[in-house]
Every structure is written in C-alpha cells, then in structure tokens.
Design a protein that fits this description.
Number of helices: 3
Structural class: alpha+beta
Helix content: 40-55%
Oligomer: single chain
Radius of gyration: 19 Å
Low-confidence stretches: none
Strand order of the largest sheet: 1-2-5
Order of helices and strands: HHEEEEEH
Strand content: 25-35%
Length: about 90
C-alpha cells in the first residue's frame, strides 16, 4: 500500500475528505519525525514505538580479510512493532 492508497482507505473509513486526510497524515509524520529527531521516543499504543538509538563505537571485522576494524559511533532510527500489532499481523487479521 502506498501513500495515496493509505489516504484513500483512511478517508473512506473516517468519512472525511481525501485532502483533509492527506493533511492529517502529513502532520502526523512531521510530528513523529521531529519528536524522534530530538531524541524523544513516540509510542502509539497497540501499534509501534519510534525511537532514535545511539550506537557506541566498537570493534568489528572486515568480512573479506578478517582484519579488525574500528566502527565509529552512529545514530539509527528504530521502529518496534508492539504486541497488539504483531498479534494481529501474525494471526492474519
């Protein structure tokens, strides 16, 4: 499902116009992105948790040569599905 299909499905389910639904979806993604970028997690009960994760510097291995290399510290985005979402998906609902 792409964004256009998602907007159409949400508009149909809520009985609102596609334009308003698209504006809401854009605002939602902006708020979640800005909040997570600041370092604060966003958890939507029964759906998912969005968070920024700090990864420390560490030693690794070059898979081609086996040589030890230093991997620098980094930041990653993590999206964790919550229990209700996983249960619904795995049950095929």
């Amino acid at each position: 499902m792409n964004r256009r299909e998602l907007v159409a499905a949400l508009a149909e389910r809520t009985g609102s116009e596609k334009k308003a639904t698209d504006a809401f979806l854009a605002a939602f993604t902006d708020v979640v992105t800005e909040t997570v970028a600041k370092g604060d997690p966003v958890a939507i009960s029964g759906f998912a948790k969005f968070a920024r994760v700090e990864r420390a510097a560490r030693m690794g291995r070059n898979p081609a040569t086996g040589e030890a290399i230093q991997i620098k510290a980094s930041k990653k985005a993590r999206i964790t599905p919550l229990k209700a979402f996983k249960d619904a998906v795995l049950a095929g609902k």
